[in-house]
């Protein structure tokens, strides 16, 4: 088990207040209040239709909530686009990783943020500073203890675990306030999954908070400091890992357990068939 257990003192790195999202008459999120502190690994779990993807997309700037607020370092933040979220230090890795197969590791780490050479002329003609990208990529990977044969290798030639490590390293390089990982081990084997989980712990040890969306209960209890359960658009449980069990978490996911603050029939107007946001 992960040993890091940062205290929840001071101002949260990211906070949601009454976050709600409607799609027509369908409520995908209902009054979600969540605080995430530096160095925490918050596992976000729930069945299909629970609202996980909706919450992730709101935090990553993919769309704006119908109501509610997102605060970063205690100040209200308006995330109109993913670019807004990235500028404020929120980075997301979706299951497709968003890597360019024919581009090397350094190029992928700087994708959309490529440094140029020779000042104005370099920016005008797009002359990339490839040596700087490679040097900084090597440093970033070394800090996270990521082993890749060469940062000049195209990511398309790498294993699934190495590609996942590259994607996580990119978010850690730019995401100072929050990293969001969507099913980071879903397509990995046992050894590669272990390496990805270790990388998540190493990122958290640097004080960067993470949200990890996962259906893998074993992995959740391996890395998470807290486990947040969404059900039918509502946050029904926010549990310290050391104070709960897999059975209790599964109970909240399925509805066998209900939060004392949330009626058992809450959120019945939410799509739970899996056709709406996860």
Automatic annotation (TrEMBL):
Annotated SUPFAM superfamilies: P-loop containing nucleoside triphosphate hydrolases
KW Phosphoprotein (keyword) present: no
GO terms of molecular function: ATP binding; ATP hydrolysis activity
Record keywords, A-Z: ATP-binding, Nucleotide-binding
InterPro entries with a match to the protein in the record: AAA+_ATPase, ABC_carbohydrate_import_ATPase, ABC_transporter-like_ATP-bd, P-loop_NTPase
Highest taxon, organism lineage: Bacteria
Domain ABC transporter: 14-257
Name of the molecule in the record: Sugar ABC transporter ATP-binding protein
UniProt source species: Phytoactinopolyspora halotolerans
